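fwd from M.: "can u put these together and see what the complex looks like"

so here's what she sent:
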Amino acid sequence: MSDSTGARQPRAQEVLRLGNRAFPPGQPLVMGIVNRTPDSFFRPAVTWDEAEAMERVHRVIADGADIVDVGGIPAAPGAEVDVAEEIRRTAGFISAIRARYPQIVISADTWRHETGRAVCEAGADLLNDSWGGYDPRLAEVAAEFGAGLVCAHAGRQQPRTRPFRVAYADVMADVLDQVQRLAERALAAGVQRDRIVIDAAHDFGKNTWHSLEVTRRLAEMTQTGFPVLVSVSNKDFVGETLGLPPEQRLPGTLAATAICAWHGARIFRVHQVAESRQVIDMVSAIRGDRPPARAVRGLA
Amino acid sequence: MLTAAALCPAPPLLARELTGADPVVPELRQACLDAATELVRSAPDVVAVVGTADQTRAFGARGTLDLAAYAPALGRGGRDGAAPPRSADPLPLPLGLGCRLLDQAGYVGQFVLQAVSEQASAAECAALGASLADAASRVALLVMADGSARRSLKAPGYLDERSFAFDTQVTDAIRDGDMAALLALDAGLARELMATGRPGWQVLAGALAGQRAAGLIRYRDDPFGVAYLVATISPAHEPTTTSGRERG
């Protein structure tokens, strides 16, 4: 938060609570993406079928995901998905995950409070709103259910719109201002402080230069004390930076993931869980947050 | 006079926190703790801990084991955490590990912490051992000493076939209480085999001079190509009270 002089004092990271789980600082979490959509940008429609989607849930958990993120609407513009259809795609599926995995943290990717209510009733622990609090009642739903809330920077974008000639005097300053304002609003709505997560929302309301800048300066977000979620997986800023299509963006994604981990991000929303887990664990050990799995070299 | 002696190896990985999530050598640590516990049970007035270091000198009992030299991340709160204060006079690793074993064994009495130079001759080591044994009426000796580090192709010093006969000679001497055999070890060969424990064994021999002794081998193995030997050595007047097991 800004104090009366406008200066920001770095705050230490604290325990993050999701569902009935408590995660200390220094334990980064992998959030595996499971899209219940026919038209997402990365491997479209592979989990449109519910059985295929549940197979993917099994796989991401086996690969080391701590959180499963279920979304029913792609970020990009396209065919309208109304509230009823979004709920139809996600709520029943979340119930099925909860029945199968009582302890896994379940996140729902939505900006709408009606959907938020339905998925919380189905067992979701975290409402992942990438669209910057477009629907202010979503925070009220999170508060009502004791759920977590992601407070993201989407610039001034409406949901499912692409950035058009966006410009910022200082993109990170804008990010910090918006996410902390949203966090304050969530607190005022009754969301528990230790369940609030902030997210720069790479590519949302940002061009590639902006997303590179927020990656470079991510430490300014972690210094707010709020846990930081990053969602960089296979995104266009990686593709534009390297000149590669979505299916060839894994190395670039992992590089960005490593930088975010180094800066202290706590949640990593990813498509490729196993690879991301290795990168995050490796950076965590370099930071000194995690011991090696087995160290004997030079110690015998 | 010596009430009992114990022999343990002193690899860094004896410190549980250095091997990461995997305990790696739990049996070795348990055998060392058993040996230290047996030592404490002999009701000594003082425990002398002996280990090889750069030079022969005593250390203050307030010295600390400085594991940060082996794992700088230990004891810090992560990347942004401050480094822990470094001890002005950190103990050589064998002495620090020995102190830790005695702490774990519940020993709260007096210590003598004695480093012995890797260059010390057999006669010097024996004299040092005799003086330690005379330090009090009841002295227990904890010798932290390692055998050859050249026992396999992946060993720290690669393979030297002479290691096997050398380490067997040491083990047999400990088991049989044959102190003369320990004093007769070839210091040059020990150096070539990276058997850093040679001075410690010879201190033990000096401390036991004139006493009949029997050794109980608790652990004997070389999981990383370094010979680790854990033993309890009982002077004839102090019979061994527990049984151990032998590996390798």
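replying to her w this: Residues 27-287 of chain A form a domain with the TIM Barrel fold (CATH 3.20.20.20).
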